[in-house]
Design a protein that fits this description.
The protein is of the alpha+beta class. It contains 23 helices and 17 strands. Strands 2-3-1-9-8-10 form a six-stranded antiparallel β-sheet. A six-stranded antiparallel β-sheet has the order 4-5-6-7-11-12, covered by helices on one side. A five-stranded parallel β-sheet has the order 15-14-13-16-17, sandwiched between helices.
Length: 599
């Protein structure tokens, strides 16, 4: 896990001219790579690559980046982890490749020489990669199909910038940092900024699964793209369904693949099903698994306290377990730092920031998370509510303007405990896009008029085009479960949960891996996920059966959260803390009304 930066100069330039600017962007990402820094520039000055290193695999200098191919002169910077490289390493060695170290980056560099950009079609892992192809004088840029690892692009009059963080890229010379309307509208609509937009007009996200090529004329073209949902669409029609044992074997395989590292690997463990499944599968695959739980003093001894359940699981599995406690007074002094660490504004991620800080303080560099289990196995209420809303009130849509008229009539009756979403039901229900916005939206479209300037709202809504984009997400999918899985995975999870895991973990030099968010696993499970009935978390029982009690699957579901709302209660110092949090977020997006309240 690292931070990368690249600058491709348009036209000719003097060697060395861009080094200082690239170093400045690179070192704004120091937290992503506290173990080392590297810089490389093409002899002609056409391209400059920078890298900050968090050493997890091949801890020696043979794993340092930028990494240069001694045969072709091509150079690579890479962020993430590849989990399928041993077979590829063996194939390359059989063909005469001489690998100096044991890093996945070196394997990727040699594979790119052997196979070209097509190698990105099959990789298993989370990654963002930028390679200077010396022979063709092109940049090749790739991002994993789930978009677990961030990568952003900015075009300037002098060249093209790429970097792992928006806030670092915003300081690069020539990058336009005026407000991007779609980013601001998206933030208020969802509580996060949906790709490909950011809050800045000159910075955009590299699309999930894309492999791009760029040259010094400024041309950017797509070589190919991996749609992570394609296996679900292709599974329509009835391939054989996996049984419970087969499904469990696929999950075990993904967890085992995600354990590869040259440093200790931990597991974030709560009292819930997903993290317990990951921890159990990890303990079955390795004799040296560390588990980590965060407890909150405010919850101690209550139904929201996950510590006893997590500690009981750790004891049953025989893991090396750590419990860290967080008290109210621990929060007051870190809000400024937390807000500084956020790369893009989000109404979540606070919990991950605190648990990552504590895990890193305990000596961990890698932690596995159970993120993704709710999306695969229907753990959210949205798996019931969104299909119902998508099919309800369809007759209202046959009469133009009726839904809007009913919303206008109902709006005065919202408030006083009633969410504004209730007034929007007649206008938005009856479509998949509207049903999902009702479920996951922060502010409804009619509320945005009170938050944003008319021109920004109009332009941003047009660019977002949520009706078309959300409906396109579910197109071609054969079941309601698959449709909601697709929406939750490529909207809420991609743009909020995965992004929060990245910035919050990397703020403390911690790599968070997500074995349930894995393109290979999704492909393996796809026939079962589109089947009727779809699998629930009960299908994961074979993994935990034996070491863990069956009540794991019947106890009340809890969500891991930091009790910020309670800690920021209206008391003297709480008011100051609330104001600090609100001011920092308003600096990104004008206001965060509703940030600490449920909608």
């Amino acid at each position: 896990m690292c931070g990368l930066v690249a600058f491709l100069r348009l036209g000719s330039g003097a060697p060395g001219a861009d080094r200082e600017a690239v170093v400045a962007v690179r070192d704004r990402m120091r937290a992503r790579g506290p173990d080392g820094a590297g810089l490389w520039q093409d002899a002609t000055g056409a391209v400059t690559l920078g890298h900050r290193r968090l050493a997890i695999r091949d801890l020696a200098e043979t794993g340092a980046q930028p990494m240069v191919d001694p045969v072709t002169g091509s150079a690579l910077v890479f962020n993430g982890e590849l989990y399928d490289v041993e077979g590829l390493r063996a194939t390359l060695s059989d063909r005469g490749a001489s690998l100096r170290g044991t890093s996945d980056t070196e394997v990727l560099l040699h594979a790119l020489r052997e196979h070209g950009p097509d190698v990105f079609r099959e990789l298993r892992g989370m990654y963002a990669a930028v390679m200077w192809d010396a022979s063709r004088r092109r940049l090749v840029v790739a991002r994993d199909p789930y978009a677990i690892k961030p990568l952003y692009l900015a075009r300037t009059p002098k060249g093209i910038w790429l970097a792992s963080q928006v806030r670092a890229l915003a300081k690069a010379p020539g990058v336009r940092t005026g407000p991007e309307a779609a980013g601001h509208v998206g933030y208020f609509a969802f509580g996060h900024v949906p790709d490909p937009w950011t809050l800045y007009e000159g910075i955009e996200a590299v699309p999930a699964g894309a492999c791009l090529e760029m040259d010094d004329s400024g041309r950017v073209r797509t070589l190919h793209s991996r749609d992570v949902l394609q296996p679900l669409r292709e599974a329509h029609g009835g391939a054989a369904h996996l049984g419970a044992e087969g499904l469990a074997a696929c999950v075990r395989g993904s967890v085992q693949a995600h354990l590869v590292a040259d440093v200790p690997v931990g597991v974030f463990l709560s009292a819930g099903i997903d993290s317990s499944v990951v921890a159990t599968a990890a303990a079955q695959a390795s004799t040296d698994v560390r588990t980590f739980t965060m407890g909150f003093g405010l919850y101690r001894g209550t139904a929201d306290d996950e510590v006893p359940g997590a500690e009981a699981t750790a004891t049953a599995l025989g893991t090396r377990h750590t419990t860290a406690w967080l008290e109210r007074e621990d929060v007051a002094g870190v809000l400024d730092q937390l807000l500084d660490d956020m790369d893009q504004p989000t109404l979540d991620g606070v919990n991950t920031w605190f648990v990552s800080r504590a895990a890193a303080a305990s000596g961990l560099k890698v932690a596995l998370s159970g993120l993704g289990g709710d999306e695969l196995f229907g753990g959210y209420p949205s798996f019931g509510s969104v299909p119902r809303a998508a099919r309800s009130l369809r007759l209202l849509r046959k009469i133009p303007g009726l839904g809007r008229g009913l919303r206008l009539l109902l709006t005065p009756f919202t408030g006083r405990g009633r969410s504004p979403k209730w007034a929007a039901v007649p206008e938005l229900a009856g479509t998949w896009w509207g049903a999902y916005l009702l479920r996951r939206g922060l502010f409804m479209p009619h509320e945005l008029r009170e938050l944003l300037a008319p021109d920004m709202l109009r332009l941003g809504w047009e660019r977002l085009d949520l009706p078309a984009r959300l409906d396109a997400t579910v197109a071609g999918l054969a079941s309601d479960h698959a449709r909601v899985l697709a929406l939750e995975s490529t909207w809420y999870m991609r743009h909020q949960l995965l992004r929060d895991a990245d910035w919050a973990g990397m703020a403390h030099g911690l790599e968070i891996r997500v074995p349930l968010v894995d393109a290979t696993l999704l492909q393996q499970l796809a026939p079962r996920l589109v089947a009727t009935p779809p699998p629930s978390k009960q299908a994961l029982r074979p993994i935990t059966s034996g070491p863990l009690p069956d009540d794991l699957f019947t106890r009340r579901k809890t969500g891991f959260r930091v009790p910020l709302r309670e800690w920021l209660a209206p008391v003297e110092d709480g008011a100051a803390m609330r104001g600090k949090l609100g001011h920092g977020l308003r600096g990104w997006a004008r206001t965060v009304h509703g940030a600490l309240t449920d909608r």
